[in-house]
C-alpha cells in the first residue's frame, strides 16, 4: 500500500513539474564598442509585451561576440521581410523582432509565404563573414525550423527579387534543420544588406539574425567610392 502511494505521488510530481528549457540567462552586452553604437535593449519592456505561452521569455542577444560587434544590432539597422504570419504581432512574430536584441519565440519572426526572405539593412557597407540565427534559442519550441535557404548580400540595392543581379549568394544550405542558434561562416564579402532567402519549410521562424565581420568591419571602402576615385585618376592622367 505504501509503495502504491509512493508511486502515485511520484507520478503526480512528474506530471506537474514544468519542463526545463535551455534558458541561457545571458548578460546584457555593452552599449558601445569602439565606433559602434547599439540599439537599446530594454528587457523589461520586451518581457512585459511578450506572450510566452509558458515557454522562456526574452533573453539578451550579444551586442559583441568574440570582440566583434554585432552589425545587426547597430542603432541604424533596419529589418525587412517578404511576408509575416498574420494575427500575432506585437505580442509575437513581428518583422522588427528579427534584430530587436532579444532571443526566443515571442521575439521572433515567422514567414507567411514560401519562398520568401528576411533581411537586415546594416545602414552602410561593411565587411561580413559570419552570421548566427536559429528558430528558437531556448529550444522551448522545436517546430518551424529552416533547412533549405541561401544567404545573399548586396551593396547598392535590396531588390525584392532575390534573383536580381544586385544580390550575391555567399552561402547555400540544404541539410540539417537550423533549430538552435547556429553559426554560419563564409568568405569575407562587402555588404550593406544581408538576406536569408528561404526556399521551403513552410512556417519557418527566425528568432534573431546576428551579423559579424571582424573587430572593425566598417573599415572598408565602398565599391562605388573606389570606382569614382579610379575614374578620377584615369581622367587626370590623360
Considering the chains and any ligands shown, give keywords for the structure.
single chain; about 240 residues; alpha+beta; Jelly Rolls; six-stranded antiparallel beta sheet; two-stranded antiparallel ribbon; 3 helices; about 35% strand; disordered C terminus
Give the fraction of residues assigned to helices.
Answer: 10-25%
Taking all residues together, what is the mean pLDDT?
Answer: 84
Uncertain residue ranges: 2-21, 222-238
CATH topology: Jelly Rolls
What percent of residues are in strands? 25-35%
What is the N-to-C order of secondary-structure elements (H for helix, E for strand)?
HEEHEEEEEEEEEEEEH
Q: Which architecture name does CATH use?
A: Sandwich
Number of helices: 3
Q: What is the level 1 CATH name?
A: Mainly Beta
The N- to C-terminal Cα distance equals 103 Å
Structural class: alpha+beta
Shape designation:
globular
- Radius of gyration of CA atoms, rounded to a whole number: 21 Å
Q: Got a strand count?
A: 14
CATH level-four homologous superfamily name: Galactose-binding domain-like
Described by strand count, sense and barrel closure, the largest sheet is: 6 strands, antiparallel
User: Structurally, how many domains make up the residues?
Assistant: 1
Description of the structure:
There is one protein chain. With 238 residues, this protein is α+β, with helices and mostly antiparallel strands. The protein has a single domain (24-232), classed as Jelly Rolls (Sandwich), CATH 2.60.120. The protein has 3 helices and 14 strands. The chain has helices spanning 2-16, 43-49, 223-237, and strands at 32-33, 36-37, 59-60, 64-65, 68-69, 78-81, 102-103, 109-110, 116-134, 146-154, 168-178, 182-198, 205-206, 208-212. Strands 6, 9, 10, 11, 12 and 14 form a 6-stranded antiparallel beta sheet that branches. The chain has a two-stranded antiparallel ribbon with strand order 1-2. A hairpin with a 2-residue loop joins β1 and β2. The longest helix has 15 residues, at 2-16. It is globular. It starts with a helix and ends with a helix.
